[in-house]
Amino acid sequence: MNGWILAATLALGAGLGAALWGVATGPLRRRVVAQNLSTALACPALLLLSQGYTRPSYVDLALVLALLGPVGTLVFARLLADELADDPPRAWGVTWAVAGFGAAVVGVLCVATGPSRALVKLLVVGALLIGGNVVASRALSGGFRGVRRG
After folding, report:
1. Three-class SS string for the chain?
2. Residue 50 covered by a domain
3. For the segment 25-46, what is each residue's pLDDT rounded down to a tens digit?
4. How far, in Å, CA of 68 to CA of 146, rounded?
5. Fewer CB atoms inside 10 Å of the end CB: C or N, the chain?
6. Does 81 reside within a domain?
7. Overall domain count for the chain
8. pLDDT tens-digit map of 98-138
């Protein structure tokens, strides 16, 4: 076991364990935030596993997860808009912490990868991961100004 696999194990164990606990228990607002954060934590773990096992195909899985994870959260935000309007989730601290973790993982992997096409793919995954997580969290907390629900 190398350091990359150990870091991925810690990210999956601690982060996804807490996210699964949040999805399984508590009010609706905590469950939708935990669902959003679970995809935001699984994507950097896949990137770390890709480096640890030297399997570039895991980066493709992380790319798909970074793209589809926030879309799933946006679907939940749309379907549960009425229930979330009364008590919207406010998880900006957790959102920025997970976005910072994703940025740190992508940054370290970019340095380890060096200049290549794989570096460009890592940067795209990082931009989708961070941007999608922030947009989805904003949609959960009440949406954007000037955009009506309906």
Report:
1. CCHHHHHHHHHHHHHHHHHHHHHHCCCHHHHHHHHHHHHHHHHHHHHHHHHHHCCCHHHHHHHHHHHHHHHHHHHHHHHCHHHHHHCCCCCHHHHHHHHHHHHHHHHHHHHHHCCCHHHHHHHHHHHHHHHHHHHHHHHHCCCCCCCCCC
2. yes
3. 878 888 888 888 888 889 999 9
4. 25
5. C
6. yes
7. 1
8. 889 999 999 999 999 889 898 999 999 999 999 988 888 88
In a domain, 99, yes or no: yes
Give residue for tokens 């934590």.
Answer: 41
Q: Which residues touch 17 (CB under 8 Å, ≥6 apart)?
A: none
If we measure between CA atoms, which residue out of 20, 36, 38 comes closest to residue 132? 36
Amino acid at 126: G
Domain of 133? Answer: 3-140
Burial of residue 119 (CB within 10 Å: 0-12, 13-18, 19+) is middle
In a domain, 148, yes or no: no
User: Cα–Cα distance between 102 and 99 in angstroms, integer?
Assistant: 5
